[in-house]
Amino acid sequence: MKREQRFFLIWRYVTFFLLIAFVITCSFFLFFHSMELDKELIRRNAPLTFLNILLLSLFCCGVEGLLRRFTVDKPIQRIHEATRRMADGDLTARIDTSDLPSYNVDFIGIAEDFNLMAKELSSTETLRTDFVSNVSHELKTPLAVMRNYAALLKQPGLSEAERREYAAGIDGAVARMSTLITNILKLNKLENQQITTQPETYDLSEQVTQCLLGFEELWEKKSLEIDADIDEGVKVHADPEMLTLVWNNLISNAIKFTEPGGTVGVSVKTEGEWAVVKVTDTGCGMSAETLRHVFDKFYQGDTSHATEGNGLGLALVKRVVYLMGGELSVESAVGEGSTFAVKVRRCGHGE
Question: Would you state the pLDDT for residue 42?
Fold first, then answer.
């Protein structure tokens, strides 16, 4: 037994002894202070009374020790073991609360909070591992493309057209890698709030219109029908640069996932204190499983378009909308297309 533990046991016993001695002394004083007691009787019974106090103190100390063992020491031991496992890197560590006394709500609360923390840390570690794996995969793909095209360029006797084709392939792979790294850095800054928002009052309707017109070449190339329903003069107080990122991502996704001849809809409306921007497409839609992960980093439900993105766009959208104090939702069904809705507070409402 450690020195500190022995000292604690001795101190606990002395505390019980002094307390019981004080109580018995006060009791004797209250009941016998007006009576004359035989001194010989007091002398004979004093050692017996002292022994009774010693035994009673020992009994109370033992009972308190047993109660403490099951109501305090046992939960603390479990918490200590779980925290030690967590410190050693075991993120599966949990505290079993099934056989803890129901009245011990404080320790049960601590255990439940620990288990929740462990669960969140485990999820974070899984996300980190997936993130590293996905980044590695996304970087390998353009590197492999560049390596293959570089090997082709080394071949003798290539025509000028072939050299241009291979060089264009390398250029496209470099552009994809550059976009990936830019988005990773941008998302990291957004998540760590290293980017300071610079809100200003501006015309949201005009901004969304300009973003939509920026994709004119792409929608004409796919012969898409554009259904624009944009109210004029809808003003918001937000960071225009960040929201431009939101509209560009949503519109580009709608165009990317809509088959040639389909329809992409963009609307800007007001609903009470909110300015609501909706981007709708008649593309392939998403399953319930895809909807649960659609805003996760690197998640791409439709792998047929994987070469056209890196799965970070919607994660960026979600983070920006959160920083703007807005709301983001999505409705979709397989084969029926998708609708993304973004709500941003209008001017004069909750600024």
Answer: 65
What percent of the chain lies above the pLDDT cut of 90? 14
284: pLDDT strictly greater than 80: yes
- The sheet with strand 327-333 has its strands ordered as 225-230, 263-271, 274-281, 337-345, 327-333
Question: Which residues are CB-neighbours of 329 under 8 A, at least 6 positions away?
Answer: 340, 341
CATH entry, 200-345, from 3.30.565.10, 3.30.70.1060, 3.40.50.300, 3.30.70.1350: 3.30.565.10
Distance CA 257, CA 283 (A): 5
Lowest mean pLDDT among 95-109, 280-294, 334-348: 95-109
Would you say residue 302 has pLDDT above 60?
Answer: no
pLDDT digits (tens, 9 = 90+) for 181-212: 766 666 666 656 555 667 889 999 999 999 89
Question: Which CATH architecture fits 131-191?
Answer: Orthogonal Bundle (1.10)
- Higher-pLDDT residue of 38 and 327 is 327
pLDDT confidence band for 2 (50 / 70 / 90): low
User: Rounded to 5 degrees, what are φ and ψ at 73?
Assistant: -65, -40
Q: Which residues on adjacent β-strands are paired with residue 267?
A: 229, 278
Q: Where are the domains of the chain?
A: 3-90, 131-191, 200-345
Identify which of 318, 319, 287 has the alpha carbon closest to the alpha carbon of residue 301.
Answer: 287
Out of 204-213, 252-261, 285-294, pick the least confident: 285-294
